[in-house]
Specification:
The chain has one helix at residues 51-57; strands at 10-14, 26-30, 40-48, 73-81. The protein is mainly beta.
Length: 85
């Protein structure tokens, strides 16, 4: 397991409104959720998006909590693993 320092802020492409589903996204910083011992932090090197991400950006499942950073098809390196994983 790596001993890399986990940043307090992450950066990525963010959607701020439903138009983000059409490509209107902005690069920016955001705070990750509070760490829990059931989590795994991954330093992402590659990420793709799929139809469910577009659906999320366009509020297809109800109101989207903007800003929203989507993408769950990832490649990366685990840098921290919780004790309950």
């Amino acid at each position: 397991m790596s001993t890399e320092q986990v940043p307090e802020k992450f950066s990525g492409w963010l959607g701020h409104e439903p138009e983000a589903a059409k490509g209107k996204m902005v690069w920016g910083e955001f705070e990750p959720k509070t760490w829990e011992e059931t989590d795994v932090d991954i330093k992402i090197s590659h990420c793709g998006i799929c139809g469910s991400d577009i659906h999320m950006l366009s509020s297809g499942w109800g109101p989207t909590p903007y800003p929203c950073c989507v993408g769950h098809e990832i490649v990366g390196k685990a840098v921290r693993v919780g004790k309950e994983v």
